[in-house]
Write a structure and sequence with these properties.
Layout lengths: L2 E3 L8 H10 L7 E3 L4 H11 L14 H5 L26 H7 L12 H21 L4 H13 L3
Parallel strand pairs: 1-2
């Protein structure tokens, strides 16, 4: 049974122990490390576990996954409909999907997207990014994040 450790970037001293466990056996997948701070996680992993790991980055769901056409070619709106390109199902509202985002939890329509994203900003961006770049003025940093979000595609 594998050992799973979440938010491993918070305990970098664990990497030497993980290295020891991994080196004791040829069995793959015996230790699974997860984390939300890629920078800190990768720093610790590359220093002590190089050559012993496989890295999987988990992105949000793609639009093709959301509309059920994953693996069926690129999604291009109605322009290619006659050419047999996969199209979104009837009733698909692109703006709703843009608003809700691609996080799996938000595909449940009973989840409030505003509450989810507020918590996400607090838990990941404000805390993790603040730790990474040593933010001094939290209000300026928050306004900067809002400006970036408003200009992202």
């Amino acid at each position: 049974m594998p050992l799973i450790i979440d938010e491993v970037q918070r305990v970098p001293e664990l990497f030497s122990t993980v290295k020891y466990i991994v080196d004791q056996s040829d069995r793959r997948g015996q230790v699974v490390l997860t984390g939300s701070q890629t920078y800190h996680l990768m720093k610790g992993v590359s220093e002590s576990l190089g050559g012993r790991i496989r890295i999987l980055e988990m992105a949000g769901l793609s639009l093709r996954e959301l509309i059920g056409t994953a693996g069926m070619g690129a999604y291009v709106p109605s322009r290619l409909e006659r050419a047999g390109a996969p199209m979104p199902p009837d009733g698909f509202d692109l703006w709703t999907h843009i608003h809700r985002g691609s996080m799996p939890e938000l595909q449940d329509e009973s989840q409030d997207w505003d509450t989810f994203w507020s918590g996400y900003v607090s838990a990941y961006l404000e805390r993790d990014v603040r730790d990474l770049i040593n933010v001094r003025d939290e209000m300026k940093f928050y306004n900067f994040m809002v400006a970036c979000a408003a200009r992202s595609g």
